[in-house]
Write a structure and sequence with these properties.
The complex is a heterodimer of chains A (about 575) and B (about 450).
Chain A (H helix, E strand, L loop, with lengths): L7 H5 L6 H22 L5 H6 L8 H33 L1 H16 L9 H7 L4 H14 L2 H13 L3 H9 L4 H35 L1 E4 L2 E4 L3 H10 L3 H30 L16 H8 L1 H18 L13 H4 L3 H27 L5 H36 L2 H16 L6 H11 L3 H4 L1 H6 L2 H13 L3 H9 L4 H35 L1 E4 L2 E4 L3 H10 L5 H34 L3
Antiparallel strand pairs in A: 1-2, 3-4
Chain B lengths: L13 E11 L5 E12 L4 E5 L6 H8 L7 E6 L2 E2 L7 E4 L11 H11 L4 H14 L15 H13 L5 E5 L7 H16 L7 E6 L2 H7 L2 E6 L4 E7 L11 H15 L10 H4 L15 H12 L6 E3 H7 L4 H13 L3 E4 L2 E4 L1 H8 L2 H15 L1 H12 L4 E3 H9 L4 H18 L3 E3 L4 E3 L5
Parallel strand pairs in B: 3-8, 3-9, 6-7, 7-8
Antiparallel strand pairs in B: 1-2, 1-4, 4-5, 9-10, 11-13, 12-13, 14-16, 15-16
């Protein structure tokens, strides 16, 4: 820790309550008050909610933003619980793995809006109450966050070094203790990164998840999303402006209070054990580490956790058979696979039956064609975004000072919900009579292109100085410089960014291929528009939503298998510097 | 001194009887890694398991630790069979296996925490262990802030703090530089000799002959393929032992002789390859770079050796560890450039010719011997010659090899073949396409 960055009160005597303590105190209590206020709405009845419609008054936005932020936090907590249980099960049980991993791959490719098919279920859990609708909204946000977090955790669990696992077993850590002392810390750095990505993506869907349609009813939960929906309906540019400001502040608070400290503390869990320079601490982390008040709270929490880690039984010399590994019942396996296959066939048959009731078989071909249209759109957009952001990213990445400033900005932009700007786009398209098939497309990549930028920045700044000197020394210039040095060096990073951007764009197509502004609705051809229009029909046409979703998922999964995965593997093998 | 007289009449702490370990290969056959291993460990002993890497000694250690139970035979500790990790057997790891997110103190306390000990008692005991092992003052440091030697001290403290009867050491010094390893070894031996360590016996796995001779009361020499104990060497030199002491050198020499002894009455081929007599492509190759091979031939050719050298001497001079030296010596023997027996290495006529030749002559000679004496090389070359395209995917040979050996051995064998084949210029290999070919960029 570098002392020169800290206030005098800290350096002089860290045990006297100082400025950091005061700040921590204020923040913690603000948070509690905020929790109380935001939570109060949960118990209310739906009738009451309908009686108090969303207001476009900017002052109401403070409360809305608080509610939206809380929904995000709750969804994140649910995602963590899901991650810890689902991924652990998948990593520890061979039989579960066979089912859970492909299922997760599929879930990841399902556009978030398609999950709105379960809204009714949640709303009916608590008839007439807001709580059910809140749960539905939180579930939708959860579906935008959980899958990649679970994948990252599963992957980490599978890659813990053998000797560390053996050490944990040799010292007889109980499974619970091993989980918290070895597995969770080891998985932390990639998990934190994925949480950040999840929340970034989540903001985009917060905006669409707060205005729910149940049967013929529309429920608008108080929140920034409902505010934006209303502003869109009423074509109120001023209100959109306020909403942008509110989102800016909310994302900034999340970034500063949650993610900067998390990222900095993630370094703590890294396995590479070299004596490296400590990255500068963000202020919030400094506050947490330096504030005695928070320290006490942390200790109390740690003590709680430790109490939970006490082994239920003292371990004795007499060792019992470790049956799980040695005796695998073949019959058990057989029964399990048979059951899986049976359930799979049943599920396909039921789904097909459900869809076929409404949709003629010929429409499937039409939907596949729509899928190809969206595919072309995504491909072109990724290409254009790459042409723009790769040179910029390289330029920035090679200048550490600029990169230091711009890297968090790019991350921030990735979190910003692009759908806030959709209204402007529609107005422009209508005003200039533009072709929506072309001009709606950029909206799909508006929010996800930043992943390309900041991955390229990271890649360019990771090019070893000596390699650059060697390039200079040999007189590499122009295209040769790009072809032989820079592009190969950033390639693995670029691929990572492009995969994320492409995945996000498919998902965003459902929100971006059909956009409304007041009474104007602009539609592009594509599978996203197909799903979205079926979903927003009154009553929603779930058969077509399911058909579109299945086709879109199949597209995404196949693309991942035949294009992205080999490309990624090749990038890792050939171009990764290690 | 508690190790002065290993009391052979004492009840053994650990008794390993007829232990076998095999893995199932893809084709359904079993690959035998350990075969009929017997050993006992009595209070007051440091016993060394010495063998080349891949000889199964680490597998044996893991069986004893209860981490990976044997396929046959019994490991018993204090009369109880060990089927899962047992309290009283602690382990020290080659890579230290410290938890980087825990401080030195927390790392050391980990095993106690798992026992559910009271925090105060835990702390006292951990601090004592930290003191003992010379980590005083580093309690609050994180592993990343420590040097390798200090990290392994944490590894030792972590194992000692649970007061085990036995400590199992899996090449604990091999990740350290020579000087640090030496310091750590002597520190440990000193504490052991003074009876300060709360342990009764040590089982050390190593491939470093001098380390083994320095530390152990008894050495068990392991052979490869399958792993078996081929001989036992008691060492009754008094501690501290000095590496330049003639008696010490005599023991080292004896170990070399044992380790280079031709397997007695043993056919090294597996049952599978006997079905194809003379094909022999199933011989596993250990990776040795051609630079090391040339370097070794040159060194043995030069005065004072003039074509015949004592292995321990050349090992020391060339700074080669057993793990580098033996595969290199074996490779030269396989290629008929040298003969190895009785701890000596003698260049053949071809070896001498190789040493005298220039780069081009050497490559030609190497190519000839490679194709003649390494059936796999001849096989690859023949396939490439026969095919119209003169290319063949790596997977083709990999699948063939997998009938004879485990996956990683097949991997290493091919890696070795590629490296030697490239040096000999008998074929080319494209890593992007994962394919062999006859194209030569030159």
């Amino acid at each position: 820790m570098r002392l020169d960055r800290l206030p005098i009160s800290v350096i002089r005597d860290r045990y006297v309550p100082g400025g950091w303590d005061l700040l921590a105190f204020v923040l913690v209590f603000t948070f509690f008050i905020y929790l109380g206020q935001a939570g109060r709405g949960l118990a209310g009845s739906l009738a009451h909610l309908e009686a108090t419609p969303i207001s476009l008054d900017p002052r109401a936005l403070v409360g809305y933003a608080a509610r939206t932020g809380l929904r995000m936090l709750v969804a994140l907590a649910c995602s963590l619980v899901f991650t810890f249980s689902y991924a652990t099960l998948a990593a520890k049980s061979r039989r579960a793995e066979i089912l859970l991993v492909p299922l997760l791959d599929f879930l990841q490719s399902v556009p978030i809006l398609s999950f709105s098919i379960v809204i009714v279920f949640f709303v009916q859990l608590t008839p007439g109450r807001v709580a059910g609708a809140e749960m539905a909204a939180i579930f939708l946000i959860f579906t935008s966050q959980a899958w990649n977090m679970a994948f990252s955790f599963y992957h980490s669990l599978r890659s813990i070094p053998d000797e560390m696992v053996e050490a944990a077993r040799n010292f007889q850590l109980s499974p619970w203790m091993r989980f918290w002392r070895l597995e969770v810390p080891f998985a932390m750095p990639p998990l934190i990164w994925n949480m950040m990505m999840s929340v970034s993506g989540g903001w985009f869907f917060v905006v669409v998840s707060e205005a729910l349609t149940v049967g013929d009813n529309r429920i608008a939960l108080p929140g920034v999303g409902s505010y934006i929906a209303l502003a869109n309906d009423q074509r109120d540019f001023g209100a959109i402006g306020w909403a942008i400001l509110a989102m800016f502040v909310v994302i900034l608070i999340f970034d500063q209070l949650l993610f900067r400290p998390l990222i900095a503390s993630a370094d703590w869990f890294r396995l590479e054990q070299e004596v490296g320079q400590t990255p500068n601490s963000p202020w919030a982390l400094t506050m947490m580490r330096r504030s005695r008040f928070l320290g006490l709270m942390g200790d109390a929490f740690a003590a709680l956790l430790r109490a939970g880690m006490k082994p239920p039984r003292p371990v004795t010399v007499a060792a019992q058979a470790d049956g799980s590994g040695s005796r695998r019942s073949r019959w058990g396996d057989f029964a399990w696979y048979a059951a899986l296959i049976l359930i799979g066939i049943l599920a396909v048959w039921r789904t097909a039956g459900f869809v076929h009731g409404e949709v003629p078989v010929g429409e499937i071909g039409h939907v596949v064609v729509l899928g190809f249209i969206t595919l072309v759109r995504v491909a072109i957009l990724i290409a254009i975004a790459s042409l723009i952001w790769v040179p910029i990213g390289v330029w920035v990445g090679m200048r550490p000072k600029v990169a230091g400033v711009l890297q968090p900005v790019a991350q921030f932009l990735a979190a910003f919900p692009a759908n806030l700007f959709f209204g402007f786009a529609v107005s422009a398209i209508v005003l200039f009579r533009l072709n929506p098939d072309i001009w709606l497309s950029p909206l799909m990549i508006l929010g996800t292109q930043w992943y390309i930028l900041f991955n390229v920045i990271v890649g360019a700044s990771a090019i070893p100085a000596e390699l650059r000197y060697a390039g200079q020394n040999m007189g590499l210039k122009g295209w040769l410089w790009w072809k032989r040095m820079v592009l190969p060096a950033i390639f693995p990073f670029y691929v990572t960014g492009a995969i994320t951007a492409a995945g996000g764009s498919w998902n965003a197509s459902v929100a971006a291929e059909i956009v409304s502004w007041g009474k104007e609705t602009v539609t592009a051809h594509g599978i996203g528009a197909y799903i979205a229009s079926a979903q927003s029909a009154a009553p929603p046409d779930w058969q077509r939503v399911v058909l579109g979703t299945v086709v879109l998922s199949v597209f995404v999964v196949i693309l991942n298998r035949i294009f992205w995965r080999p490309l990624y593997a090749r990038a890792e093998r050939k171009f990764r510097m290690s | 001194m508690n190790n002065a007289a290993p009391a052979l009449n004492l009840e053994p702490l650990l008794d390993v009887q007829a232990v076998n370990k095999s893995f199932r290969k893809p084709d359904g056959d079993d690959l035998v890694v350990l075969e009929n291993v017997n050993l006992t460990l009595r209070p007051g002993e440091i016993v060394g398991l010495l063998g080349r890497s891949g000889s199964g000694k680490s597998t044996l250690l893991r069986s004893i630790a209860g981490l990976d139970p044997p396929s046959g035979g019994v490991v018993s500790y204090l009369g109880h069979p060990v089927l899962s990790p047992a309290a009283g057997i602690a382990m020290v790891f080659q890579s230290f296996a410290l938890f980087p997110w825990l401080t030195v103190l927390e790392n050391v306390q980990l095993g106690l925490e798992a026992l559910g000990m009271e925090p105060a008692e835990m702390r006292t005991r951990a601090l004592k262990a930290i003191d003992l092992i010379g980590l005083d003052g580093f309690e609050s440091a994180y592993p990343r802030e420590l040097s390798g030697g200090m990290r392994q001290r944490v590894g030792f403290a972590r194992a000692l703090v649970v007061h085990p009867n036995i400590i199992l050491m899996d090449e604990p010094f091999s990740a350290l530089d020579i000087l640090t390893a030496e310091t750590l070894r002597t520190d440990f031996l000193e504490l052991w000799g003074e009876g300060q360590l709360p342990i009764k016996a040590v089982l050390l796995v190593t491939h470093n002959i001098e380390e083994a001779v320095q530390m152990c009361d008894r050495l068990l020499i392991f052979s490869t393929n399958p792993g078996r104990i081929v001989s036992e060497i008691p060492i009754d030199l008094p501690q501290p032992r000095h590496t330049q002491d003639p008696r010490f050198r005599a023991v080292v020499d004896r170990v070399y002789v044992e380790m280079t002894a031709r397997p007695r009455g043993e056919i090294r081929s597996t049952i599978k390859s006997e079905r194809f007599p003379g094909s022999g492509i199933g011989t596993a190759l250990t990776h040795v770079s051609s630079t090391v091979l040339t370097g070794l031939i040159e060194a043995v050719n030069e005065p004072p050796y003039n074509g015949k050298a004592d292995l321990p001497v050349i090992a020391e001079e060339q700074h080669l560890e057993v793990d580098d030296l033996f595969p290199a010596a074996e490779a030269l023997q396989m290629l008929r450039f040298a003969e190895v027996e009785g701890g000596d290495m003698k260049l053949t006529e071809a070896g001498l010719q190789f040493a005298r030749g220039d780069t081009d002559e050497r490559k030609k000679l190497f190519a000839r011997h490679l194709v003649t004496y390494v059936p796999l090389a001849a096989h690859v070359r023949r396939v490439l010659d026969e095919r119209a395209s003169h290319t063949a995917p790596k997977s083709r040979f990999f699948d063939e090899l997998e009938d004879y050996m485990a996956e990683d051995a097949a991997d290493e064998t091919l890696r070795t073949l590629i490296s030697w084949g490239r040096y000999a210029e008998i074929f080319a290999y494209d890593d992007n396409r994962q394919a062999f070919s006859l194209e030569n960029p030159a």
